[in-house]
Design brief:
- There is one protein chain.
- By secondary structure, this protein is an alpha+beta fold.
- It is about 35% helix and about 20% strand.
- The protein is built from 9 helices and 10 strands.
- It has helices at about 5, 10-20, 70-85, 100-110, 120-125, 165-190, 220-225, 230-235, 270-295; strands at about 45-55, 90-95, 135-140, 145-150, 155-160, 195, 200, 215-220, 240-245, 255-260.
- The protein has an 8-stranded antiparallel beta sheet.
- β6 (about 195) and β7 (about 200) form a beta hairpin.
- α3 packs across α6 (about 165-190).
- The longest helix has 25 residues, at about 270-295.
- The chain is globular and about 60 Å long.
Amino acid sequence: DWDSYKDFAIVFDPLIQEYHGISADAKHTSDMDPSKVKGNINPEIPVHSTRIRVGRNIDGFGLSPGITKQQRIDIEKLMSSALSKLTGDLAGTYYPLTGMDEAVRQKLVDDHFLFMSGDRNLAVAGMERDWPEGRGIFHNDAKTFLLWVNEEDQTRIISMQQGGDVKGVFERLSRGIKAVGDSVKAESGKEFALDPRYGYIHSCPTNLGTGMRASVHVDLPGWTKEGVDKLKARCEEFAVQPRGTRGESGGQTGFTYDISNKHRLGYSEVQLVQVMIDGVNTLYKEDVELQKKHGL
């Protein structure tokens, strides 16, 4: 459970500080106010979709690598009940993986919503024990607000939609996190695990802090021609990360990239969304120049 971060601080602290680029006395800061985000992704930029996610774990239950079978089932029960009480545009349906109807499963796969077993990193960390029991997915009717239950974290809360309205996606996420947190608290009296230094506790040290990854799928043909290594180096300067559009270990096809904020800890949510918006706007401006240079 999350005591490991304290008990093995001698190992974890230097790694966390190096990855997140923070000092030893840094404190977690949070700001989920969408009105503070300046501007948005410029309308002419070819953004296919926008997705912002956070992880949240509930205080008093083990994290995925060490959670017991019973705790996992208890969390699913708690989340299923808490999610059934969401209202308005957040209201939706919870689908447990166990006993899932094949037509439902295929639909969720086609929508790119469903998480799968078979990720070697998760398996070796013990996160796929008792698969698929106690796991499931929730989405609202519009399929713009999702939760994964008992994947890498007890919950992954996701806001997404087509196009580049990052601010709109962030606004829904902000409301959604609060609604889910309030519902969990009303249901169980428990809160999300939060540490003054490390922010929201996650199974993976790279997600500590806000646990937030704000990303867009965007076409960058100029940078593709210039070279992926050069794109990576340029992204590093903007504190964003380019990935293939098939996820973290899925590789790259064509010239569509997933661009997201690199940091999670030591910066507020508003700052991280801003970094991503500004980074994508600048990268695309440069991409237009690179297209001319390469005669595209």
